[in-house]
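Tokens as discussed.
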């Protein structure tokens, strides 16, 4: 599968490498440096390149490139997933922002991790919890494993993401349902594109080897059963979803119950995407009028559509203005607004915005005379926000049950947060 794996800095110097097969040579690093790092290309380059019958799959972490080289016909998404998991493993050992110097100072550790996570080019054990049982930083005192058979069973067994014998003074589960909304509205308010990407993050502090049952909405349908009676206007239709490997997929297909033995600590239980029946948290109505070549009148109304019991935070409306703007006279009914020359926009900010409320902005923009006769392109209005205890998709946690032989009591907390995605735009 993967013939060679190496880390390269931004200058093209190989920091560390490991060769798993003999069908490639160290000279491939020169090909990558010259034709990928040295290429003068605009925009974002693809993470996959074929050079001289070798395929390079790579990703970047700060100033380090993680590069996998192969001559086989492999699934590139699997290789990318392995590289990103490799980054997460190194972050667990060296810190989130590990640098080239930190890598060089821990060569022995990295070679151990390279050998344990891959064998003859095939990914093996990449579970952080299991790796930490028998691979430690030199300065840390190694944990004594009394039962070697238990360790071997965990490494090779079906539940390698959780070790046995975990104990906590308080048994707690924290659940975060995090959603990002991407939207594009037309000038008339029609929806051109809408999408919600969500994830269910968990932080479990549970004793023993408990089994958890996790339920979402009563009326929940996934892409393959959208046409069933379960999918309706009152339900939630998920286009696609992926789960952590601890989840029993057979039970989810049968009754939409998510059953799993959780890892200890933080992990992502599932990711999902929704494109229908989205509850948009804000409505923006804009009226832009150009008065000749010297003035522009702007009127914008921002409305919060969620419950009045909720409050949005960090709301920022970015209203574009022509680049030759001389000054802006701005009035708002709520919040603060100012002209930002570097952004060629009016930034309308509200630290706290109650649901079912409105705020108006009016601006008289004076333009400087210019010989450029090109018409103003009118970029879209952008909106950033964060709304706690609200989900745009309608997804909510119905129940979480924890089963353990000892029958202990578990405290549970659920939090919802919806934020603007990469683009929440309204054309003007």
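Sequence:
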């Amino acid at each position: 599968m993967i013939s060679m794996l190496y880390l390269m800095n931004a200058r093209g110097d190989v920091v560390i490498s490991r060769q798993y097969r003999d069908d490639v040579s160290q000279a491939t690093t020169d090909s990558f440096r010259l034709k990928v790092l040295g290429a003068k290309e605009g925009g974002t380059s693809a993470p996959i390149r074929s050079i001289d019958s070798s395929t390079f799959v790579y990703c970047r972490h700060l100033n380090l490139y993680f590069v996998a080289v192969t001559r086989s016909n492999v699934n590139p998404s699997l290789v990318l997933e392995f590289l990103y998991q490799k980054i997460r493993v190194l972050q667990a050992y060296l810190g989130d922002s590990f640098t080239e110097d930190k890598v060089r100072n821990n060569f022995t550790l990295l070679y151990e991790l390279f050998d344990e996570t891959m064998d003859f080019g095939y990914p093996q054990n990449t579970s952080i919890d299991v790796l930490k049982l028998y691979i430690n930083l030199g300065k840390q005192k190694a944990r004594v494993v009394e039962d070697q058979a238990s360790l071997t069973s965990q490494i090779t067994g079906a539940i390698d993401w959780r070790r046995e014998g975990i104990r906590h003074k308080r048994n707690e589960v924290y659940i975060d349902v995090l959603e990002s909304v991407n939207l594009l509205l037309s000038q008339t308010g029609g929806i051109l594109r809408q999408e919600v990407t969500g994830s269910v993050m968990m932080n479990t502090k549970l004793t023993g080897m408990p089994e958890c049952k996790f339920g979402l909405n009563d009326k929940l349908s996934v892409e393959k059963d959208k046409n069933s009676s379960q999918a309706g206007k009152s339900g939630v239709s998920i286009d696609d979803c992926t789960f952590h490997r601890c989840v029993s997929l057979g039970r989810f297909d049968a009754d939409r119950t998510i059953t799993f033995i959780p890892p200890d600590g933080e992990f992502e239980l599932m990711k999902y995407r929704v494109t229908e029946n989205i509850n948009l948290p804000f409505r923006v109505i804009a009226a832009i009028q150009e008065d000749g070549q010297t003035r522009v009148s702007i009127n914008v109304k921002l409305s919060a559509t969620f419950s009045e019991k909720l409050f949005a935070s960090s709301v920022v409306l970015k209203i574009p203005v022509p680049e030759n703007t001389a000054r802006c006279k701005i009035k708002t009914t709520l919040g603060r607004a100012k002209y930002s020359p570097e952004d060629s926009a009016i930034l309308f900010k509200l630290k706290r915005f109650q649901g079912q409320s409105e705020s108006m902005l009016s601006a008289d923009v004076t333009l400087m005379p210019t010989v450029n006769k090109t018409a103003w392109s009118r970029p879209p209005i952008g909106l950033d926000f964060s709304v706690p205890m609200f989900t745009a998709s309608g997804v909510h946690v119905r129940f979480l049950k924890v089963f353990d032989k000892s029958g202990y009591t578990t405290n549970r907390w659920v939090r919802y947060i919806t934020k603007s995605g990469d683009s929440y735009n309204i054309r003007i």
